[in-house]
Amino acid sequence: MKKTILTSFLIIASTNANAANRYDQNFSFKLGGAKHSFEGTKLTKSTPIAIGFDYTNYLFPLSSNIDLGMSAGANIAIAYDTIDSRYHTTSVRTDYGTGYIAPVISFKPNDVIDLYARIGGSINYLAATINTTTIYNDHTSTHDETALGLYYATGINIALGRKVFAGLEYTTNIYDVEGDSIKTEIAYAKFGFRF
Q1: Contact status, residue 123 vs residue 138, Cβ threshold 8 Å
Q2: Which residues pair with 98 in a beta bridge?
């Protein structure tokens, strides 16, 4: 009898310990606004529109409410700016893309809230396509750079149901373009699935 009672308690304890880790994988879609800056100065007049996605797998439950895992994903941001003068019009399209992989740590006080942070490496692509139009000609040039960078992010996921969630995320990439340190920040609203 005593052995049966002890076994029951162990089963209950094990169930409680794994409650926060019930959903150990998720996939999300993100939409938001970005900012590219150099030494605090914005590189675009308008706010780049950003989209992204990521996949997270919490591989190592550290306790009843803390998980450690890995994330991978990608972000794209595009901005259009136009500068008009008396003699010409200049339009600038800024394209940005990044892919990242990073360890992630999560704090889940319950099965509804997931607070997380991740830091890792990224590869970044930044390009500016400049078109200048005058009454005499039309000239287009593109300047681009691909560079490795430091990626970090923090966010919150809130369950909307058993397997659906919504949340907010803030990401930062720091990388060099022609020897200058560029920072790209993106604020996202997100929607996803956990399983």
Answers
A1: no
A2: 75, 124
Cα–Cα distance between 123 and 114 in angstroms, integer?
27
β-strand partners of 44? none
Question: What pLDDT, in 10s, does the model give residues 108-165?
Answer: 999 899 999 999 999 999 999 999 888 788 888 888 999 999 999 999 999 998 899 9
Per the rule left: phi > 0, alpha: psi between -120 and 50, beta: everything else, 100 is beta
Give the whole-angstrom CA distance, residue 130 versus residue 139: 8
Entry pTM: 0.83
Pairwise CA distance, residues 18 & 16, whole Å: 5
Backbone angles phi, psi at 2, to 5 degrees: -60, -40
> Which stretches of the chain are DSSP H helices?
2-17
C-alpha span between 2 and 171 (Å, rounded): 53
Burial degree of 29 (CB within 10 A; 0-12, 13-18, 19+): middle
| Closest to 123 measured CA to CA, from 109, 102, 106, 141 | 102
Q: Going along 14-137, which residue ranges are E strands?
A: 25-38, 41-42, 49-61, 66-84, 88-107, 113-134
